[in-house]
Amino acid sequence: MSALLSETTKLRDQIVSVGKSLFDRGLTFGSTGNISARLSNGEILMTPTNASLGSLEPGRLSRFSAEGVHIDGDKPTKEAFLHQCMYCKRTQSGAVVHLHSTHSVAVSILANIDPEDVLPPLTAYYVMRVGSLPLVPYYPPGDKALAEAVAARAEKSHAVLLANHGPVVAGKTLLDAQYATEELEETAKLYLLLHGHRTRPLTPEQRRALG
Ligand SMILES: [Zn+2]
Prior knowledge:
Blueprint: H1 3-24, E1 34-38, E2 44-46, E3 62-64, E4 70-72, H2 80-89, E5 95-98, H3 102-109, H4 124-129, E6 135-136, H5 144-154, E7 159-162, E8 166-171, H6 174-193, H7 204-208
Parallel strand pairs: 6-7
Antiparallel strand pairs: 1-2, 1-5, 2-3, 3-4, 5-8, 7-8
The protein binds zinc ion.
């Protein structure tokens, strides 16, 4: 088996298992959310339109050329551009996860959040895995203006939060992107749990020390 074929098979299987894990734990529902991964030749594998992340089939994932043209597999999701604009700006990223996970979406709907960096540095792992989280203004699903708005923020941050929609998170590997998305969701949950309480987030010095 060629190295590329073996890499492709492994990534396809990994996308299926990450999708099932996210679905089984309620981090995604219905046919919402999508996962993608970039191969060493620049091609991108992505979960297709109308697919439940809980029951993906490795051979049916949508495959795109490095230029973003659909090559084969099922019909692509109309959110494919969200992934492509992350890869375009984050050339070292090997995977992107986008979910409509409940707590992250809830935070994205709150009035008075800081659009430059939505969540405070509540824990060290949030700082290390997510870092900063800019808010992308609301656009209807599939609106191409959303791509430009995401791309503008993706230059500085590998995680962005779409207002009234959900997170888009890039990572060096698929596991990195998965873990960062989960850390974001859990931190959003903590943030909501802490509502109305006096809190003590990490200090700027403590945050800086994490790199
Ligand atoms: Zn979405």
